[in-house]
Amino acid sequence: MPIGPPQRKPAGGESSTLRADPKCSILTAAVASDSTQAVHLDSTAFINGSRKSLFGLDAGLLAEVMKEMGQPAWRARQLADALYRQWIEELPLVSTLPLNLRDRLADEGWQVGRPKIAQVFRSADGTERYLVQGQGATDTVEAVWMPEGDDGEAGDGSEDENRPWRRATICVSSQVGCAVNCRFCLTAKLGLQRNLSAGEIAGQVIAVLARHAVEVGRDRLNLVFMGMGEPFLNYDNFMAAVRLLVNEAGLSPRRMTVSTSGIVPGIERFAQEPPEVRPKLAISLNAPNNAVRSDVMPINRKWPIEAVVDAVRGVKLRPRERITFEYVLLGGVTDRPEHAAEVARLVRRSGLPAKVNLIAWNPGPGIGYATPEPGTVEAFRQALIAAGVPAYLRKPRGRDIYAACGQLKRTVEG
Ligand code: SAH
Ligand code: SF4
Question: Which atom of ligand 2 approaches the CA of 186 most closely?
């Protein structure tokens, strides 16, 4: 069910230790939506027909905006801090800029333009699903907040009754809908509607950080690119969002994970990213062999398991970093003991430092699979562990509000 406005004040002000994020956008700055095009400042590009968004521009582009206005380069740094570290949402509130400069920016059609949370659904388990208003678009995108309760006193003075979580995960979307067409996933039913811009991807993160007054650098926050869409089919915008979040907002790429259904050219590009901005990698394996995988994930016919694993071998891992194989357990289809043995063999033969994240299938209307019994899931996990493969179980979060993995489809009737 939709719930009301945020209960916590957005972080802001000079005392905040958080970093804010970027947004993309572009008015004058048009970010290519899905290709290798460079970002250009182009005063003919408008958001919402008439306004130009600063959010989404990185420090270099903000410097160009400032330069065009005859301002020194350090003004761009102030602006980037306001957008991505203080999370200021309105131009008049950017108090580090002189009033006349704020007025001039507004006169020239600039606005902050950060995506806003339009609707909130809250689960009994504390998970929240958001519909976030995109930039210059009338549709919404989905993001999810998953707080973890604390198991007792933290002992570091950080207890706070208004902050009933010790760590949290934010899950964001990279596209509206998805073209990949996995048979078990509700998002697939939408088809691909559009790619999100870098500002729309990073903007989901900042909007959620602000809603929960997260303190970047202090709070344990993980970010997963596992919402709607296939990030590696919107590669440039996805990575531009990561760079904004790391370079401008101060988030750590070691606490970010991107999940792909196995888009080999995307994995190959990802392998070339510098470690300072490369998130961790998760591969949606979801089946014990190519025959079953091609049934449940038709993309496997284009890039079968061996091709995916080969591409993953090209990613130079940081010390102690592991590849995650995600594995959705579909009752009777991928959850048998013999499947566990095959998965264990496959992972061990890959030679990759890896772990397996098991996810019991989350049901969706019109999808004909079954959720396995908890005992079956645990037996599968134990079989992997016994075969020497680290395996974890992902708890379903927010199933009641359609926030769980594979359930994102802008289901307004939560
Ligand atoms: N497109 C990317 C990332 C988004 S999907 C990908 O497929 O990896 C994120 C994860 O949710 C994937 O591992 C996917 O296999 C899983 N998933 C999709 N539908 C699901 C469902 N109904 N129940 C459980 N997990 C699901
Ligand atoms: Fe797309 Fe991922 Fe869903 Fe497959 S599981 S349809 S790749 S969002």
Answer: 3
